[in-house]
Amino acid sequence: MSALLIAVPLLIAFLFVPLKNKIKYILPFVALFSLILILKLPIEQVNFLGGWKAPFGITLVLDNSSYYSLIVVNIIFFLLSLIPQIIEKDLSLIFLILMASINGLILTGDLFNSFVFLEITSVAAYILSSSKRNYYGAFKYLILGSIAGAFYLLGTLYSYIGTGSLNLADISKNINSEFLAVVPILIFIGLAVETKIFPLAGWVPDVYASGSALTPAILATGVTFSMMYLFGRIFITVFHGEFLNVVYIFGLITVVVAELSALKQDNLLRALSFSSIAQAGLFLSVISMNSYESLTAGYFHLLNDITAKFVLFIIAASIGKSFIKNKTTGIAFSIASFSLIGFPLFAGFRSKLLILKTAFLNQNYILPIILLFATIIEIAYVLRWNIKLWYPDNILPQEKEETQKLSWNVNLILLIVALVIIVIGFYPDIYLKIAQNIASGLTNYRAYVTNVLGGM
Amino acid sequence: MRRFLSALIVLGLIMFFISTLPLIPEFGKASLSKVSRAFIDKDVNGNGGNVQYGVSKDLENGAANVVTSIVVDYRSFDTLGEVTVLFTSALGVGIILSGYKRKKFGREPNFILRVSVGILLPLILLFGAYVFIHGHLTPGGGFPGGTIIAAGILLLYLSNEEFDLSKTVKFVEGISGSLYVIVGLLGLAVSGVFLINFLPTGVVGNLFSSGIVPIIYILIGFKVGAELSGIVAELHREG
Amino acid sequence: MVYYISFILIGIGIYGFLTQKNLFKHLISLTIIDTAINIFIISLGYISGEEAPIYSKYTPIANFVDPLPQALVLTAIVIGVGILALGVSLLIKVYEKYGTLDVEEIVAKEGK
Question: Residue A158: its chain B contacts at CB < 8 A?
């Protein structure tokens, strides 16, 4: 039954090829169908596709972590499908395919199958990033992403040689230490482009800052979350935490470099995209401490970050230079940006506090220092952008007339998400529960192997 | 300076790969893993064994071509994903290159080209159809067969200026893709598992054998042929 | 040995991507890397003296090479073709927008 999460959006995408323009209005129903289907599925279920059992065929695995990740990602898709103004013509089919492929990435229990879904997601992302005539940025992203995909494929093959199968549970059971020196490096290079780590994150500003509203709204939230889930699944459940000390160092370097670059930007979209790179680096450093508490803190922070970025990117791409005609939108922007820096009373404060707590628990003092440094820089540019947008000093009168008011459904959705940020600041339990479930599903690899292979 | 640094990085990478050579079996001395052994003997479900060409009947998967049985039956979900990648890139080419006018050559295509296309085209299409219909008996299958058909259509585009297939191509592409997913959903409805092989599998080596495998390969052949023809048409139209 | 050839080809592809200035050569380097990896994967399954994995009247005993890497390469080749088609169409539009395919000139025009 969980295969329907992937099959139904694909079927609708294939059927509606001749009717590309009418499909925008069906999107909310497809997203709603996926959400209802997830709520009816049991939390733990292994689905053998084609009827072939575990190491021979492909399996779709639902456990604590994938169930809650599916809920998060499909809610993001549902919210985006309710604001069809930002979906340009012809891109709704790509939206459906992205929905199917991200569900597939989260559900899959097979390494080569994850490569195929990774490539589907990447191709859809290349097409999305070429909107608003941003062809050069999309081309750079294409070359980097495809070379990374080739390295991921190499890592898959090396693990096949080492363990004789491609199933994640089987690899987790059988991999030995000689191969654990090689395979994580290749898969890390493979995922480094999508998870925005320092040397290979050069594509992010050109792609996220193209001026289109749909591209960063889906790439910085849904796609990023599923890639971070895949990273956690592979490195923690399958590789038992190998290689994570190198990831830690790269994550810290990413935070420092990205925050310093964000400070220098004049363009709001580019500043936000550097902030996304920095948050991704922070997340990777936090989860590389490889304990239940650090995974919870990392995923909680990631959830807060994608909620804030959802609001910020849509506003930044749709609005001109000031909030004069759009007061409610401006309030949503300020709420989301204060959550980003971790202002008390907002959601980001809770997650940064949790990160500091787990870092001190592990007697790790470098991470809090870098976190503090990053927060100070964030405060600097977030306050500067808020002042610049609320009190524009040198705006010409005709520009004041031109900025159009955002339509009511966009404002409504943005306000709802901003209110969620405030609620999480007071009662963090909803996000915390999601993060705890993800963490427990990822660290409990014995249960994962037993579920899939049916008894060790 | 830049070339020197790049050469250093590349050298480091090659050294890294060479250092992994002790882990790989020597060339020509690989050993079949448990999974591959089960695929060859067709006993994933534990009741197979000695498979004989033309004799064994009603096995769990009756395709004579073992690679086809892996691609379309045991790991059919990967093939669905691959078909989606091709579909998405054909869509992408259409979206990115939209809005071009058709380019006229300005001179008549060559007489030799026109006559020989008239002779060669049926042969090419027939050969392509043969490759994807017999995908479970001989090497090849849906993907090479579809490419051969697209090559034939490219010849048609080159030799005739008034030729325009785009509406038919989109139609064929959409229908064959949805039929693939519908066959999988039929498996879900009939036996409770997505993409299960629910037709009888017959004798190994006959044309009508191995359940849904030839049906899916024919659908893939049409889909790949339509997609590659669509890409060729878009790139050809550039003006 | 085949393994050395494919490693050197991967090196050539990455060197091309890092040093060349023409964008089309980046695309060709990508194709070289894809081809090298496909060669590497197939050669991993080769057992010398054995037949292609197809049952026929010429192979009464089933001595086959490993069929699984061949199935994986089928998928990888098709994915490579799809990405190549997308890359070429992007290059057509880049040339139309900037008038050149040289990286340094494009960055200069972007910066203005």
Answer: 20, 23
Quick check: B201 and B128 in contact, CB under 8 A?
no
Contact list in A for residue C34 (CB cut-off 8 A) is 146, 150
What is the helix, strand, coil percentage profile of chain A, to 5?
75, 0, 20
- Distance between CA atoms of A96 and A351, rounded to whole angstroms? 32
Which pLDDT tens digit goes with each residue over A368-413?
888 888 888 888 888 888 888 777 766 566 555 556 667 777 888 8
Residue C9 forms contact with A (CB below 8 Å): no
Is any Cβ of chain B less than 8 angstroms from the Cβ of A7? yes
In chain C, which residues have their Cβ closer than 8 Å to the Cβ of B88?
Answer: 82
Reported as a single tens digit per residue, the pLDDT across A307-321 is 888 888 888 887 766
Cβ count within 10 A of residue A75 = 15
Q: What is the CATH number of the domain that holds C23?
A: 1.10.287.3510
pTM, entire model: 0.93
Strand partners, A110: A167
The residue range of the domain holding C73 is 2-111
CA distance B162 to A48: 50
CA dihedral A269, A274, A280, A284 (to 10 degrees): 180
Which among A116, A139, A156 is the nearest to C87, CB-wise? A139
Distances (CA, A) of A394 to A384, A388, A427, B118: 15, 10, 41, 69
Contact state of A119 with C79 under an 8 Å Cβ cutoff: yes
Give φ, ψ of A48 to 5 degrees. Answer: -85, 110
Q: B84, B176, B178: which to substitute to probe chain A, counting the most A Cβ within 10 Å?
A: B84
Q: CB distance A143–C34 less than 8 Å?
A: no
Q: How many domains does chain C have?
A: 1
Interface of A with B in 178-217 (CB under 8 A): 178-179, 182, 185
Residues of chain B contacting C10 with CB distance shorter than 8 Å: 13-14, 17
At A126-170, the pLDDT tens digits run 999 988 888 899 999 999 999 999 999 999 999 888 888 888 888
Contact C37 A138 (CB under 8 A): no
| Residue A82 near residue A409, CB atoms below 8 Å | yes
Is A51 within 8 Å of A101 (Cβ atoms)? no
Per-residue HEC secondary structure of A3-22 comes to: CHHHHHHHHHHHHCHHHHHH
